[in-house]
Input
Amino acid sequence: HREYAVWGMMWHSRCQWLFRRNRPLSEAKLRVALEQLIDRHAALRAELRDSYRLFGATQQALTVFELWRRHGAAAMGSGFIGRLARGGGLLTAALGRAARWSFCNSWPRARAGGSDAWKGKQLPLRALGHCATEEEAERKVWARAADFVPPFQARFVTFGKDKEEGALVHLAVSHMLSDGYSVVPLLDDLAHFVARAELGGASLPPLPPVPNMFAVLEPR
Output
């Protein structure tokens, strides 16, 4: 799998959403749907190819360089070096290009892991059992929401006093690769895959293709 240079901050932070279903949902059908969701969205199976500490160190180095570029030349005074740094000459331009090339080529990498590794027992889903009421189920979900292992985790709990009345599904995705708007495609696709699983794999209208999110993020 190709590796990409992407912004490495907020890997351990998460965007999270809690979805309520007002009718029964089986864990088996949810597992099938989550496998397909992970297979479709590369962010849900992302892997850091370099140490997370390297992401932070590279970001700090870039910050120091940018501060020097903006303010260091003024502090050098009116001497030869100061005039050279402010002059925008060939040497200054060459140094800028060299610095940009260095950061671009040394930036830590991430990639999309193989979807097969997430199937079966490796699926990042935690089933939390059954609760008598929706309120109890919600408390149980949020009590475990902080136990996040990036890039993706799901939690599932059913509720109902005398019978199963509904279910809660909690999804959490690394903030490095998601934001608040990510809920739109994730929920739409998850609903599609659950519906298909409950129909026994029956054919539904195809989903639109998903762009390579790593290729989109890398130029930024």
Summary: The beta strands are 4-5, 14-21, 46-48, 109-112, 125-131, 152-159, 166-174.
